[in-house]
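Figure 6 in text form: structure in, sequence out.
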């Protein structure tokens, strides 16, 4: 209810409501696809599906990371007046971003109908990939949200790091364009790992073993770290905010 209310309040009294999310994403995809397909000398019908699914998935990843840093700060009123578990605000933030992701997936449906690729059995990998991404979002929000409530300079730092990660991840460019030692930008980049495990099924590509291994490691290691960290500091969040 809190997540849905957030979406409605953001676009209340607007004629097309939350579908502004989809429209703005579609315009961005079209503009970047025309420009960068010309720069990279890649046919538009090949490049547009790649950048479309990349930006749709990145919208979810970046949204979760940025809002994870402010998840408890934004819920200050609830935290001070309600005995709800602190994790409720994390789930609220995740569901809000998931709803936005579902809206943007409508663009992916249009892309499939016009440009392809035709969905195949690899599309099923999107379910475990989404689960890993959401679980990672939980532990990222528990840690970043707590630290940001204490250190208010952290949210803009996180936003800057996410912006840098955008350029270092294969969103505007493809892994095949890298050579030699620069391949590390993909192989050891956790942002690229989660991008790949979610984007590849949409493009009909088989699973990338390296990306899945890194995503599993980040999810498990981060969850264990967050369990120990949040157990110790969650009682202090009410004082931090």
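Output sequence:
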């Amino acid at each position: 209810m809190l997540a849905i209310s957030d979406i409605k309040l953001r676009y209340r009294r607007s004629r097309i409501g939350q579908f502004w999310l989809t429209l703005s994403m579609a315009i961005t995809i079209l503009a970047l696809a025309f420009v960068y397909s010309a720069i990279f000398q890649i046919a538009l019908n090949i490049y547009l599906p790649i950048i479309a699914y990349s930006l749709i998935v990145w919208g979810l990843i970046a949204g979760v990371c940025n809002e994870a840093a402010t998840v408890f700060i934004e819920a200050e009123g609830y935290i001070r007046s309600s005995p709800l578990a602190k994790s409720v605000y994390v789930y609220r933030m995740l569901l809000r971003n998931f709803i936005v992701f579902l809206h943007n997936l409508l663009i992916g449906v249009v892309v499939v109908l016009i440009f392809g690729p035709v969905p195949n059995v690899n599309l099923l990998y999107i379910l475990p990939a989404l689960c890993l991404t959401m679980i990672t979002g939980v532990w990222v929000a528990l840690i970043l949200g707590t630290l940001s409530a204490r250190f208010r300079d952290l949210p803009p730092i996180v936003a800057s790091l996410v912006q840098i990660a955008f350029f270092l991840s294969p969103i505007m460019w493809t892994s095949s364009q890298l050579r030699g030692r620069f391949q590390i930008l993909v192989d050891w980049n956790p942002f690229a790992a989660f991008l790949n495990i979610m984007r590849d099924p949409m493009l009909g590509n088989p699973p990338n073993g390296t990306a899945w291994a890194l995503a599993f490691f980040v999810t498990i290691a981060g969850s264990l770290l967050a369990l120990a960290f949040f157990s110790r500091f969650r009682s202090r969040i009410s004082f931090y905010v």
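Caption detail: The chain has a mean pLDDT of 87.
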